[in-house]
């Protein structure tokens, strides 16, 4: 695998739903042309931000909790192999079965084989980013198995033939009227008089899912955390659908990314305080389900844990880039990101959208496959301020951009127009006389943008800049000239 700055540039095989069919700028332009989408996103993200701010403000020790979470994650990543081996031993010791999957293809094959062994053709699912990452639903469908999503937002996405656009709220791009239309069109037996009142929509979904919960023999889940010292797995959710999936079926299959392990129960305590406040704006999740192996006569009698790599060890190899693996999937960075708020999640082409997706996805797939994502940011820093485990997303984005530039430079001996432009700018700015001359030459631009104060378009090749960025009109007087006039030689 080729690397630049210690980062992988080529993807492992079978990475699943981590690549888009278009680069981010093209997909973003499509999203920006949908005013209803922007209204839906703006309303939803503002609501979540306000709820989060209120519950975070209640904690005088919030910053200490963030630092504790960051420290636990860093220490865990440094000894990840040891913690995963202990988790494996404890799961086996308590009646579970552990499987290791190097990529999405292998993980899908394992789960499909396990489901086939039970003889069922329908499974219920707890909301899981990891199974979305590997494209498990599609793999099961190809094997003749229906995977029924039970989380309300995931159900909306599934019935609408849509894709998730948010880590926490997959249907954030839909409003109530759109959801009502999806239910009337796709949900068997729904009352034609259904309105878009939230309670009515929730009750319709509950009635639709209840029969499926009761007849399900196999459930598939992800895991928010895996506790190495006991082999326990944890799922937090707000609707109770997870509790139904985790307790009623005979067989439970959990797919967990390698980075989700925590060493001890005391470590879990920290994250169960950070996660709900950062994600749903709650002091604690309404449902926190923790299970350990198999208990005779109580809950699923077969438990399988599939531990997924899918590019994670490649990211772990980079001592700086591995910080992206600290993510606990709270989505706080999405809700404060000005880019995400305007484009939504589909523009990122990955199940992991927003700032953390722009960092994590290229590290899982290799920079070559998602080269545009690190540029999907204004580098304002709001994501770092919101992150409950203090991931320095802006610095990681800059690092990935640098790796992309180095990769392109190594791939071609002919310098690009961008490289020539930057070299010319560097030559100009390293000598005061040349820089002063360039300032005077820029006055030509004052004839443009006289009304708005901004230059809307420049001729090629400079048009590549103004096509995606605002360019302020040059000032009538530079700072250098002002200083000379006001201060002289003093």
Automatic annotation (TrEMBL):
Gene3D superfamilies, per the entry: Alpha-helical ferredoxin (1.10.1060.10), NagB/RpiA/CoA transferase-like (3.40.50.10420)
Domain Lactate utilization protein B C-terminal: 411-486
Keywords assigned: 4Fe-4S, Electron transport, Iron, Iron-sulfur, Metal-binding, Repeat, Transport
Gene Ontology molecular functions: 4 iron, 4 sulfur cluster binding; metal ion binding
SUPFAM superfamilies per the UniProt record, alphabetical: 4Fe-4S ferredoxins (SSF54862), NagB/RpiA/CoA transferase-like (SSF100950)
Span of domain LUD: 84-294
Top-level lineage group: Bacteria
Boundaries of every 4Fe-4S ferredoxin-type domain copy: 324-391
BP-aspect Gene Ontology terms: lactate metabolic process
Protein name: Iron-sulfur cluster-binding protein
